């Protein structure tokens, strides 16, 4: 099944149940790479935070094309999931980014506060928005 929007109520409800998604991108040599990520979602985008000098951040600066996968298998064996294909864009410090950081803190409380040693996003963190070009779901 295909849907053009993250705003599809089935997709929003499914993503609301997920703490971790898998972010896929291209390494410097073009090889595929995937990593689990905490995330936020809203009708038009996904958001993620990382440490600024990691391989994944360098990869996204070099090539912002990404895929994000969330999947689960229900107790009856039914498989449900979502794949979002799009582009990552880094967010500069702004009211929007601070508001999103607060939402991350609420979603991942108290774990994120421990990682950040407080309620303020550390200076060595970056936040990026994934704007979808295609969204596909199944079993929802």
Structure description:
It is a single chain. The chain has helices at residues 9-16, 55-62, 95-107, 111-116, and strands at 2-3, 20-26, 32-38, 40-42, 45-51, 65-73, 79-91, 125-138. The chain has a single domain (2-90, 123-138), classed as Electron Transport, Fmn-binding Protein, Chain A (Pnp Oxidase, Chain A), CATH 2.30.110.10. By secondary structure, it is an alpha+beta fold.
Number of strands: 8
Order of helices and strands: EHEEEEHEEHHE
What is the class in the CATH system? Mainly Beta
The largest pleated sheet is described as: 8 strands, antiparallel
Uncertain stretches of 5 or more adjacent residues = none
What does the radius of gyration come to?
A: 15 Å
Tell me the name of the CATH homologous superfamily.
Answer: Electron Transport, Fmn-binding Protein, Chain A
- The CATH architecture can be named as Roll
| Strand fraction | 35-45%
CATH topology: Pnp Oxidase, Chain A
Question: Given the structure, what is the number of helices?
Answer: 4
Helix content: 25-40%
Average of the residue pLDDT scores: 94
Class by SSE composition: alpha+beta
Shape: globular
Number of domains: 1
Terminal CA distance: 9 Å
